[in-house]
Amino acid sequence: MDKFKRTLVTTALPYANGPVHIGHLAGVYVPADIYVRYLRLKGEEVLFIGGSDEHGVPITIKARKEGVTPQDIVDRYHGIIKKSFEELGISFDIYSRTSSKIHHETSSDFFRRLYEKGEFIEKTSEQYYDPEANQFLADRYIMGTCPHCKNPNAYGDQCEACGTSLSPLELIDPHSTISGAKPILKETKHWYLPLDKHEEWLRKWILEEHKEWKTNVYGQCKSWLDMGLQPRAVSRDLDWGVPVPVEGAEGKVLYVWFDAPIGYISNTKELLPNDWEKWWKDKDTRMLHFIGKDNIVFHCIVFPAMLKAEGSYNLPDNVPANEFLNLEGDKISTSRNWAVWLHEYLQEMPGKQDVLRYVLTANAPETKDNDFTWKDFQTRNNSELVAIFGNFVNRALVLTQKFYGGAVPAIGELAEIDRQTIAEFQKVKANMEHNLDIFRFRDALKEAMELARIGNKYLADMEPWKLIKTDEVRTATIMHVALQIAANLAIAFEPFTPFTAKKLRNMLSMSEIKWSDLGRIDLLKEGSHIGQVELLFEKIEDDVVAFQINKLEEAKKKNELSNYKPAEVKANVPFEEWEKTDIRVGTVLECCKVPKADKLLQFRIDDGMGGRTIVSGIAQSYPEPEKLVGRQVLFIANFEPRKLRGIVSEGMILSAVDADGKLVLCEPSREVKPGCTVG
RNA sequence: CGCGGAGUGGAGCAGUGGUAGCUCGUCGGGCUCAUAACCCGAAAGUCGUAGGUUCGAGUCCUACCUCCGCAACCA
User: Fold this and answer.
1) B36 C1' – A33 CA distance, angstroms?
2) Rounded CA–C1' distance between A227 and B57, in angstroms
């Protein structure tokens, strides 16, 4: 690290189609902020870049759904995100956005330079085009019937009913979700970044020269490189984004993955119009990308390939990526509204920024996916922040007020036990540095906490409240040492809990702090006065936590209901057509899971005609298939037999699809003879 | 055989071939300055299962079992 003069830290650009939640924070922004604050405390030159990613198809879909413009959407969420980051103390030097003028210019220039250097290849392909709306259709804008499960509402990229991924060309009866028109195939030209040409140096650069990268990062890169890299389209047919700056590219924009990382560059430029290049091109600058695991490939392979193709930029020195944070046992999901939103947290838990920062760091998903629960949040606040950290500081300061009217007492001769205690807390600095330097913030935080534990033990062992009655000189020394430990806490916790650290500094009347002061025992001068003593943290009661848990469950329910709307009624069918379908009642004789298939159940049905086997994709709604034995079901009796997972299925069992996607078997309201017709 | 993770005391998590660890919880004791907080001690693990490599395996290899994520916007 000594070979670098300065550090550029970037954080993944949050996508501006929703607010930021605790998963984003734990994975990216809190660790990055800790690291940056640490470097600043050490007096190092550091630049911390963030911004919103505001292009791409999902934003246009959301805008269309709400009947507003994409710009309206990104303005709204950019505002919310920026404000909530500020309030949480994420200390960006700049937080900008990709819809800015300077970003459009920068990414445009970047594309043109690669274009002129011949770094792209051009390919023409056939894609669906909406003749009424006069535009090419992104996969998500096309719906049709799934060729596998016949779900009529499958998207162009995937069928949500059966889970298979699709190409728009596979859909039966495709239609545009914009106009409803039947799309036509039309030729379109796009530019591709030939990643395969970059494979060789990428292999060497990552696999040989960066073995120190975190194992999850290194492993995923290796897996991609071993599979072989493919050219990747850098443009799309869309009207929202940075226009492709080439003649004949009307109606095309840069693909969002191409323009988003350039946002790091644009934002640096915006902040430092005359000085930005040293942060990106000077070999003395170290670049770090803080991201989540879903972004590993882009930041380790794709973006470096772009930078290398351009020619004048540095490559990242490290890409510390975290895994994911789950919430109360379930994965966080924007669409299911299963999340703790930062802007709501800040409103509902005023003054508790540091509690969230602490909990997310103490339980950060550094090596594997971890779980956030409100119960754990409460425990960590009450048993660690309040009981260990807050309590130690409070004890030391209250005793100082009582004994000395708030003035730091004189230090006398140190006893052996004092020296031992001091030696022990002086180890904290080296331990913290070791962990911070390799991005292990969880362990670094634990070390910082160790300082408060040492302080508590010191007070318990020394018992100054007893000793004051017999030995005032000795008591003064003990309290002096205890106060120095408190002062050290103010430095050690600055990267993690900056609001609390500041409060503590104020109480101790400390002015400037430096990382290099950590471990010193002369941070507070004899006779200097401590300010008003207040509690650093407050207990969180059960009802606060219960409120949050309840809120989560409510939101989930509400979301399921509000999102539900009955599927569109299909085109009318003449009676003769309908009549061809033969629906019967059958009694379940046997039912079991199909091995190696998540969704399939195998039924043996008494159909009154000797029985038949039917395979049905309802396993996820009926986890205990044996309980279905004896129940009656409706089934289509005259489907062509079909092989599913090697089992011949002679028909289809009818189920209703509930709002939450759960399948519910249809059953006659009283038992009837197996084989009865339904009509 | 789609791809990738993960299985470690009651809970949540570390663990880098060399004596199984941390936080919380539980139990016992101490203290009473402190937000019923703090300090000391104890119990609690055949490290998913079965093989293998090794002087030595939680760690490396093989097979299997279980759970999760991804392949859909989303860190």
Assistant:
1) 36
2) 31
